[in-house]
């Protein structure tokens, strides 16, 4: 008995009625068999019904590739019902990866010239959805003709098809320039909205188009002014705002046309002020228009008063009850804080209030903006607010908050004592969340403030006595006690009188050594502090000798080695112990301002000496396998110059006098990739302690008008090298020079072989997927010698 094929409605009901996935698969397999048999029979009457069922099966995730050729047959059919299903199938089943999509080019061309608007609409929708570059080149002339058709139905769809063509083939921009100027005089909402979108695409991809449309800025200003005052049509108003979607698009286009163009910016200044002051923000539609107005004011060359008005609008957004609006305001203020710092400072109290938000994304943005607002005049007040936030902030924000406070204190500290107190406060509350260099920075700061040695060691001793769980705090405290422990036994005018016995100090350090919370590095600090106290304190050193001898058999090799060496000091070199364990010499530490000046001088010097590095153009490669790279030895290899022998050569042992190694030579930053505003820079660091290790920081910036998303950077090196890729800071580089993406490469090169890199970049930009593979062969010699 032959079971007849189901109708589409019956098929949907039967699939939805399946109780298990196996039953669903059984129903679909049976119906797919009927569909295949019908296609083989070639019944033209049933073809569109069978394809409709197949498209439903495809939307459920089951394979439907065998219906591709049936789509072409239905498109070529003269019946509208067949064309409708055929074009729908083409949009769902075909794309640029299938050669079959090229076969419908002629059918689309015939339908565009058909003269029947519904058929033309189907062809234009299909072209806008899956048209390849070849199809766009072949059909551009037909689309251009349809842009000026009398009916708005076809013109709307032709404009959208033109947008797709410009994105696919930017060189077609010149074809659509004349029609756009005429379409701006239309009063139809859909045509105007599509035309504005098309002009934006043309301006972003063609400098000639940008210059051409800067002449129509007065017309755009007139359209927007009419929208604000009267409106084109009441049916497109939302919550009392006249056609907000069209207003937003016009503002975005004005932002593109007015950027770095004085005349256009001056033309739109009055209008932007009118929109900013008259728009109702009680509903989301008005807030969206006002937000786009603010972005336009900030991007063009607007008047100073207008920019202050824009910042005040964002400050007003911070008081809105909608969390999304507050988040947008914080993000926008964070972008403006560098260019309009004083204007953003007026809203500092409101930004600080946002730190108390329960929403994690809001508090994170508020924290970033608060740290950006810190300067020399408000550092003490802002630090108090940030420290209060540090007590109650979520764990995932503590590291950022603690690091931000330490950086702000390092840059803007009014006095050394305040700087030390601030760092101690952070270490006490969130010591486990601070950056790795916090311990070294604080010990350097205390060592350089000779007048605060007694004050610092007493503060740290009290903090250590209260809590030994914060490891960075314990490390700084034990180091300071070892260096300046003799001040604990003296009176200090700057702190409250406290009598400390030698036995108490030694007992506290032994407690740190025996604590299960102490890291191996912390025990090393404590053991060295005990050893140094043997020359600082006046009492008997037998207790210290006993503790040191105990750790001579410790399981930790580093700690055991220290203990054995210290025992040798007691036994064989006791006459040298006092000289060897003297206080650490003062180490010069440059301020961040000095570092910036030095960096600027390094950037200017090569230009003045004609030694600037000229980056080569990235070489694209058609190799499909990234890891099969750089193992060939063909080609000329530049021989590195001989290394100059170090005048301070030799191994520094524990018993040698302290010496400062020479600072490593700086390696210039290298630009290796740039395309449509996306730039990739490599900066290099050679750690002094491990010369075979090279750290490469890959910084990706985006100066274009569209965000770069789903960014992935992969790398390969020759087989004689070892490469480790750290996780990137993110996958999105925001537009117009927003937050960059950083990633760290660790390359181990023990044989000092010439270094080469092959990089593969994949990301989405301007709605397209981009993949670039190229080699970097011009790395500085200092990176591998």
UniProtKB/TrEMBL annotation:
Region named Disordered: 588-663
Keyword Protein transport: yes
Membrane topology designation: Peripheral membrane protein
Superkingdom of this protein's organism: Eukaryota
Matching Pfam families: Adaptin_N, Alpha_adaptinC2
Keywords carried by this UniProt record: Cytoplasmic vesicle, Golgi apparatus, Membrane, Protein transport, Transport
Residues passing through the membrane, by range: none
Ranges of residues in domain GAE: 665-780
Cellular localization per UniProt: Cytoplasmic vesicle membrane; Endomembrane system; Golgi apparatus
InterPro entries per UniProt: Adaptor_Complx_Large_Subunit, AP1_complex_gsu, ARM-like, ARM-type_fold, Clathrin/coatomer_adapt-like_N, Clathrin_a/b/g-adaptin_app_Ig, Clathrin_app_Ig-like_sf, GAE_dom
One GO process term, biological-process aspect: intracellular protein transport
Entry's Gene Ontology cellular component terms: AP-1 adaptor complex
Family listed: Belongs to the adaptor complexes large subunit family.
Full protein name: AP-1 complex subunit gamma
Organism, scientific name: Octodon degus (Degu)
């Amino acid at each position: 008995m032959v079971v007849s094929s189901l109708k589409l409605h019956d098929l949907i009901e039967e699939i939805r009625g399946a109780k298990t996935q196996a039953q669903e698969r059984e129903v679909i397999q049976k119906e797919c068999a009927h569909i295949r048999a019908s296609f083989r029979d070639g019944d033209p009457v049933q073809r569109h019904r069978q394809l409709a069922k197949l498209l439903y099966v495809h939307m459920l995730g089951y394979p439907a590739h065998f219906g591709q050729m049936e789509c072409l047959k239905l498109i070529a059919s003269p019946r509208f019902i067949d064309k409708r299903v055929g074009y729908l199938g083409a949009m769902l089943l075909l794309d640029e990866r299938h050669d079959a999509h090229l076969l419908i080019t002629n059918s689309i061309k015939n339908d565009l010239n058909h003269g029947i608007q519904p058929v033309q609409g189907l062809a234009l929708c299909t072209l806008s959805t899956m048209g390849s570059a070849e199809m766009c080149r072949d059909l551009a002339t037909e689309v251009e003709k349809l842009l000026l058709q009398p009916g708005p139905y076809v013109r709307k769809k032709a404009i959208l098809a033109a947008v797709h063509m410009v994105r696919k083939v930017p060189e077609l921009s010149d074809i659509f320039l004349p029609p756009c100027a005429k379409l701006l005089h239309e009063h139809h909402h859909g045509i105007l909205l599509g035309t504005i979108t098309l002009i934006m695409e043309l301006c972003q991809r063609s400098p000639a188009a940008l210059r051409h449309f800067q002449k129509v800025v007065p017309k755009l200003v007139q359209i927007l002014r009419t929208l604000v005052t009267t409106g084109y049509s009441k049916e497109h108003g939302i919550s009392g705002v006249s056609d907000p979607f069209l207003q937003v698009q016009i503002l975005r286009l004005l932002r593109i046309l007015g950027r770095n163009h004085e005349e256009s910016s001056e033309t739109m200044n009055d209008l932007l002020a009118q929109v900013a002051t008259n728009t109702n923000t009680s509903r989301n539609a008005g807030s969206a228009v006002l937000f786009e107005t603010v972005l336009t004011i900030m991007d063009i060359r607007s008047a100073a008063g207008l920019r202050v008005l824009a910042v005040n609008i964002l400050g007003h957004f911070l008081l809105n009850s909608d969390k999304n609006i507050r988040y947008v305001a914080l993000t926008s203020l964070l972008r403006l804080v560098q260019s309009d710092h004083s204007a953003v400072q007026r809203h500092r109290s409101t930004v600080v209030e946002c730190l108390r938000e329960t929403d994690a994304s809001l508090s994170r943005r508020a924290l970033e903006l608060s740290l950006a607002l810190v300067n020399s005049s408000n550092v003490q007040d802002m630090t108090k607010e940030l420290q209060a936030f540090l007590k109650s902030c979520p764990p995932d924000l503590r590291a950022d908050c603690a690091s931000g406070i330490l950086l702000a204190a390092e840059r803007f500290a009014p006095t050394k004592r305040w700087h030390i107190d601030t760092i101690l406060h952070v270490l006490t509350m969130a010591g486990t969340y601070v950056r790795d260099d916090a311990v070294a920075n604080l010990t350097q700061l205390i060592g350089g403030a000779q007048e605060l040695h007694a004050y610092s060691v007493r503060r740290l001793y009290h903090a250590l006595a209260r809590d030994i769980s914060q490891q960075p705090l314990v490390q700084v405290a034990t180091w300071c006690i070892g260096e300046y422990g003799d001040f604990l036994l003296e009176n200090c005018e700057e702190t409250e009188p406290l009598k400390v016995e030698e036995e108490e100090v030694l007992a506290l350090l032994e407690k740190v050594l025996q604590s299960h919370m102490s890291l191996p590095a912390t025990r090393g600090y404590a053991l060295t502090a005990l050893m140094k106290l043997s020359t600082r304190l006046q009492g008997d050193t037998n207790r210290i000798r006993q503790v040191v001898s105990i750790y001579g058999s410790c399981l930790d090799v580093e700690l055991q080695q220290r203990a054995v060496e210290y025992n040798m000091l007691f036994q064989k070199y006791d006459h040298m112990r006092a000289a060897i364990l003297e206080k650490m010499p003062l180490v010069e530490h440059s301020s961040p301002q000095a570092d910036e000046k030095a960096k600027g001088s390094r950037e200017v010097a090569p230009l003045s000496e004609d030694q600037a590095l000229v980056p080569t153009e990235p070489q694209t490669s058609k190799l499909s396998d990234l890891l099969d790279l750089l193992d060939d030895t063909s080609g000329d290899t530049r021989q590195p110059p001989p290394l100059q022998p170090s005048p301070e050569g030799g191994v520094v042992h524990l018993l040698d006098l302290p010496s400062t190694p020479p600072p490593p030579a700086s390696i210039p930053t290298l630009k290796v990739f740039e395309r449509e505003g996306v730039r990739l820079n490599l900066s290099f660091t050679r750690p002094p302690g491990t010369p075979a290790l090279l750290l490469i920081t890959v910084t990706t910036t985006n100066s274009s008008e569209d965000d770069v998303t789903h960014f992935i950077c992969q790398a390969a090196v020759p087989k004689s090298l070892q490469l480790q890729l750290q996780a990137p800071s993110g996958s999105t580089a925001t537009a117009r020079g927003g937050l960059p993406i950083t990633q760290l490469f660790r390359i181990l090169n023990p044989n000092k072989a010439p270094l080469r890199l092959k990089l593969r970049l994949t990301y989405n930009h301007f709605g397209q997927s981009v993949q670039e593979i190229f080699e970097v062969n011009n790395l500085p010699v200092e990176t591998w010698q």
